[in-house]
Amino acid sequence: MSKSIMISYLSTSLDGGTSEKRLTKWRPNPGVATASEPPIDRLILLYEKRDEALATLVEEDAKRMRSDFDVQLIEMPLSPPSLNATYMTLLRFANDFQFDRAHRYYLNITTCTPIQLMCFCTLAATDRWPVRLVECLDAKTDDLASKVELIDPDLSRYDAILNQYPLGNAAGIEVLKGNIVTHNNAYNEMVVNIQATVLRSRSPILLTGPSGSGKTAMARRVHQVRARSNLVVERFVEVNCIALKDISAMSALFGHKDGALIGFTGSAKGELRFAHEGILFLDNIDELGLSEQAVLLQVMEDKLVTPLGSRAPVKCDFQLIAASNKNLHELVKKGQFRIDLLARLSTWEFRMPSLRDRPEDIESNLAHEIRKSTNQLPDDQRFSAKALKQYLAFATSDEALWTANFRDLSASVERMITRSVDGVISEVIVDTEIHTLRAKWRAPGASGHLEAERTTSSSSDKSATVDYVSIVLPAHELNLFEQNQLNYVIGMALTSNSYADLSRRIYGEDAGTNPAQKSRSYLIGYGLNLEMIKATVKALGDRAIERGDENF
Predict the structure, then answer these.
(1) Least trusted range by pLDDT, from 341-355, 383-397, 456-470, 472-486
(2) Tell me, what's the pLDDT at 447?
């Protein structure tokens, strides 16, 4: 049955009073109980912890005025001082509250602060809060009812307030750029878009781009900007997924109870729980196994994590920033990355440009690298005028490949500072460094990597039509993507001598330093192992031969 529900903040002044006199005067929130146009079935009263006693008193008074009136008290965080923080607090409430579209919701702005009012107008206009804005006024009736009046949600009426609290500013832009002057138009535009995103959204952010292009630095700066705007109160948790191996990856990310893992003593909280109400940065997310990807997606959607060996989920709410220097869409096609996780991650996707794509920014980044050099001897570090001109001419030329991007630049500066005499980088030192970089970039690269990715076993083509998944998992409920992916892996497993062999055939050079665990972890995610697969398929094949079935 559809109900009319009023959402309202508690006002310590308008709703206040503890003596009996309070029962003889009009107060906006208790008065909602006897409002008649429209009649309200339930009041959702938002209050801060310090005002809990008053909120309880208002609830009692409202029910005294109307016995069948329903009041729901919801504690809210302390009112943040900025528009950014207030907006994100209210947006998070909407996500957690889960409005029921079958009901009619009204939002009382009478007891709001100016900042809350601006946020509510925006949230209502964009339907993120499916409410109609109203004012609760004194109806001047004997039953002390509130008069509910609809208001015009035209945002232009509140431009003056909005201009006092702009979303984003020059200081935030400088933080995201590392306080480095940049001239590349595409990069500057991307930074502006990143700032607008992090100040208005808690959805995941995916940073892509070549290795060394600054993805990790950008993730750290995003946390700084959100912290400066009071949008995040907890830590920045950084995890390099390359370091996560086998079953310990599950424990490292999601935690475990004591005794859940053989060889591990004690319990572990897990990185995701450490990032609760903060930012979790997963670098090289493409290195996560499919099982870990599936659990991560579930945690992101449910905001709950269940440690290994436990049946009790724990609240875990964080903003995720993920980074990868690989083409995740191609990995999806090869069955190495979950398409549903990629869809969730790429709500906001930004590609960090390579250093070669930003030649006009090399000089300012060069100066930055000199300032932050770890080599503090000598204290004064600078180029001679001719040496600087010589280095920049080479650094911005087509000959400069910058294959490792800013890592190459940082290492180059470190070498020149170390070789400098009396803190001055001379033309001779620059000439030596240019020869060093040329030799480095002429060295054998990773050009064979793409060929390895294309390498597959032709033996799997012959059996591609066999539904192995239904053989080893007859009661499965996998979607078509997962089924095809697992079917391919099982077909490869049948002719693999070991887990390491299977990983190398599936992942090529991406099998990593411990290839056996990569395929083992994948199969464990489906309750399978190599021996079980071979035995199950062989047994069915033997029975097919006995029946004379040549199609198996």
Answers:
(1) 456-470
(2) 33
Contact in structure between 375 and 414 (CB atoms under 8 Å) = yes
CA distances, 233 to each of 80, 109, 157, 172 (Å): 11, 27, 32, 17
Helix runs in 494-529, H state only? 499-507, 515-524
Q: How far is CA 474 from CA 200, 469, 477, 529, in A?
A: 46, 7, 9, 16
pLDDT tens by residue, 164-202:
444 556 677 888 998 888 889 899 889 988 988 888 888
Which residue is associated with the tokens 């609290």?
165
Q: Which two tokens stand for residue 289?
A: 């196994």
Closest CA to 4 of 33, 44, 40, 37: 40
Q: pLDDT digits over 264-278, tens only?
A: 566 778 889 898 989
Q: What is the identity of the amino acid at 23?
A: L
Residue of 297, 312, 305 whose CA lies nearest to 271: 305
Helix (H, G, I), strand (E, B) or coil at 383: strand
Structure tokens at 416: 């020149």
367-377 burial: b if 16+ Cβ within 10 Å, else e: bbbbeeeeeee
What is the structure's pLDDT at 76? 87
Q: How far is CA 456 from CA 256, 449, 451, 490, 500, in A?
A: 36, 14, 10, 14, 15
Please name each of the domains of the chain with its CATH number.
Answer: 4-164 (3.40.50.10770), 170-351 (3.40.50.300), 355-442 (1.10.8), 457-547 (no CATH)
351 SS3 class? strand
* Pairing relationship of beta strands 70-76 and 205-208 according to DSSP bridges: unpaired
Q: Phi/psi of residue 314, each to 5°?
A: -120, 140
Q: Map tokens 């997962």 to a residue.
A: 482
Residue type, 148: V
Cα separation, 16 vs 22, in Å, equals: 8
The structure tokens listed for 458 are 């032709």
Query: How confident is the model at residue 409, as a pLDDT?
Result: 94
* pLDDT tens per residue across span 18-51: 888 888 899 999 999 999 888 999 999 999 999 9
